[in-house]
Batch of 4 targets.
Target 1
Amino acid sequence: MRKLGALVAAAALMITGCGSSSGGSGSGSETLTVFAAASLTESFTALKTSFESAHPGTEVKFNFAGSSALVQQLSNGARADVFASADQANMDKAVQAGVVDGAPSVFATNRLTIAVAPGNPKGITGFADLARGGLTVIVCAPQVPCGSAAEKVERGTGVTLRPASEEQDVKQVLNKVQTGDADAGLVYVTDAASAAGKVGQVDFPESAQAVNSYPIAVVKDAPQAGLAEQWVEFVLGEQGRAELQKAGFGAP
């Protein structure tokens, strides 16, 4: 009987041990989910590698989209740990909706430029040229930060654009120029730089009238709140700033 009891106890211990090792907390891996403006795709993807190296067992996953769409997703209950917006207006909406925790911090700035086909075959020299007849011009939708910035420039210059379409994020605008579906598109300088060789870039001084600030914040009830705070600090820190500057972002 003593031997039987010992065998039962040993079996119970083995079952308990197997149960604890198969649980999520025993896997040793954590996933940090970052909702970020589409214009941050290249710089945040580069930062991901360094962050994961400094945090073994951590995987950073991104949801890149227009800032207004991301706020809507968060307001509808999407789970995320960090939100980085391409403008203050959409971050303010996130704050008002109660989906971010604490005060957001601005970590970069960005400005518009005109993306054109390589070699600029249409001879576009400035913002006013975008109102010329015979040009297919693409912009972001007004609720998207790059679209809001374009409207500010229109108001400041008195130039009225008649875009062929209004896209939901800046990468969609860039893609239409790259594929030849548009003669010109208003994108950020960072996006034009990311597609160097595939598009040309025409800067215009009026873009200084609509510089966008990029704020970042931890999402309320973030599943990985501790890691989220570390990601925010990383982006705000020296390494994050260096990577953003390399991509063409301005300092906050």
Target 2
Amino acid sequence: MTLSADRLAALDAFIVELNAASAGAILPLFRSDHGLEDKAAGKNLPRDTHAAFDPVTEADRGAEAAIRKLIAERFPEHGVIGEEYGEDRPDAEFVWVLDPVDGTRAFISGLPLWTTLIGLRHQGRPVLGSIGQPYLDELYVGSAAGGSRLIARGAEKALRVRPCAVLTDAIIATTDPEACFDGAELGAWRQVRAAAKLARLGCDAYAYAMVAAGTMDMVIEAGLKSWDVEAAIPLIEGAGGVVTDWRGAPIGQHGGQMAIAGDQRVLDEALVALKRSAK
């Protein structure tokens, strides 16, 4: 079934509503009593892994609940996949993929680098995605129809990635290389990092938005879930960028290793190193 432009536009407007609902649940808890829990407590995980501390807050749960409630009211036939409350009809024609607070570690640290990720699949293909940072009043939205935009402080502007022909000119990012990459992956990251002009750490999905906005050039991650990346695909592609796995292939529906780039040329250069550790 073809997704018409009118229907996609209506869903685009709805994703803005969903972000407003999630912001209403999150913002009162930011830099406040957010009810922190550790989902990894009692699991005896190695302390040198990212999963050894797995924080969740009332903001994560409340925001996803608010988003799911609106979807159920407006589109009861749609499926939902969310980090906090699991899967509901994941094989539906339309499926929303949610990470209510991506960057919970930043959230509990009081850093405004966390985001709300909302993606929409149509027949298994990502067609709409948003990255919201409501504390900064920023909402980045991208559509399969082409084009991405920033909605901020009552105004909208189009987003476009910037050209970057070589890695030595690139500003790159990852979340936490020591905790998130295994040995081979860490070696690949270090090789790319050694060639790049500048690297930033700990930005989580906010770095994806910066690639779409043309202020950064590439993000490299591993160990992702579907909700960590699907919202970014329409946003980055709508702004003229690319999203692949570490082999340069489409990332699919299950996360894993990911590279986001504003320019195919800089991605191709990085893939020389990344492919050696691709899974």
Target 3
Amino acid sequence: MIEGFKLAALEAGQRILGIYEEGFQSETKGDGSPVTIADQQAEEIILNHLSTLCPDVPVIAEEAMAAGIMPEIGSRFILVDPLDGTREFISRNGEFTVNIALIENGMPTKGVIFAPVTGELFWGHVGQGAYRAEVKGLELGEAVEMSCSAFAEELRVLASRSHRSERTNALLEKLENSSIVAAGSSLKFCRLAEGKADFYPRMEPTMEWDTAAGQAILCAAGGAVIVEGGAPLAYGKLKTLQGKPFANPCFLAVADEKIISHYGLRSGW
């Protein structure tokens, strides 16, 4: 299945890159978030792939959800974000991705993330490892296994480039001996997975399709994504505090869970 996810992500990414280079206009969805033709066409490509690859597995996709299309899900379903980082896409900084993930029993087990501008493909299967490869067109280079870094003296922190609240800033101020870098989209999970960063706190709203592929890859590389209290970020949340299905609570993504105890972050964010 993950090979099919990779091909779908690559083809969607190539279409996104074409629109990125040609020029485009953005619109605003009902929830106030931006959308472009790239989001829509990429999702169509991915859904076409998945209808052949795994026709019996329900798919929750961002743009379909925005249009009111929500299939019933069970213990196994797929989450699709055809263009994660639409604001980054519009601002043309290159930090946007294609995300596809398989959810099993409430947890992401397989995930693929493709960054069209940098030509980086990341994938992970929990329990079987996480990998990165360079891409040219639809051709993959050598797969390199990724592994999270162990917690060291200086904490390398990633914070959202386009979504950073006062609550996040207050948490960042508590982190002694840390350096902070702004980054966009689900690439933050990938940087943790490949050992280039240690910590990504997220106090602002996200949806399950924003995080599932990144969580699968990070966990496959030895990291974790936890909510307040220490439990892993779970999926298939049809009823949430935010009042809409598939909304996430605040979470902390870490390369090494020792970070949580070192900074006293199990609760009270």
Target 4
Amino acid sequence: MVDVDPEQTPSSDEPTSDASDETSKKKKKGNFWKELPVLILVAFGLAIGIQIFLGRVYMIPSESMETTLHGCTDCYGDRVLVDKVTYRFTEPSPGDVIVFRGPPSWQNDFITDEPANPISQGLSWLGSLIGLPSANEEDFVKRVIAVGGQTVKCCDEQNRVTVDGKPLDEPYKHFDEGTPAEQESFEELKIPDGMLFVLGDNRNHSCDSRCQGQGGINGLVPVDNVIGKARVIVLPPSRWGGVSDHNPQVVSMGAPGWQQSVPMGVGIVAAWPLLLLGRRVRDRFRR
């Protein structure tokens, strides 16, 4: 006869493996629903932090930057990713396409009414937290033409804008079909330190430093008002691509080409931690 250890004898009261698996699954489901609100709060917190410190998507609602950025009435306005990191290390440079808060002397050329419905207002507010653009914001997008200490004027004998007496190279410049390819002239203007002279690429369909505040000093943009640099067109998919930051003064001033790649490099390096963090959060949701 074989002796049987009573401690090793299975008891009918002990749960079977199937029952243990079922209990484990229930615990996992319970933990997921407990963690979900925390994950949602973390996601919103990350979204708010990203748009405040790193970058944000903006909508282009006007035609002033055609054809670099589409914003016409009859087409789908571009959504651009604006890099907020670069100008923490450098100043805006000629050729940069920037988003900035309009100075008091500027009047926005495209403003929509706030939704009257409380639900729509709430959804709009939530959208702004995660970076969805609002068309009624007093923000503008233009290209930097001259910076503090430089003198700008239009035009020379070949109808070109000049900076410090030298003509600019502007391949991005656009004139609407059926309109004369001639720029609106303006008097010579010395740019004070800390200010920017900006123009739209759609040169005769843009109210910019030439006409805002009736031009002159009132049309300039303080560097402190700059939000960031437009980097990439993210929507619509057919328009995916980088935003040109060709320096129009390179040819005339002889600035070294490597300088143009420094801000982009800084922006890319700063974006890597954000991408890794976003992947971890996404993987957490999937599990």
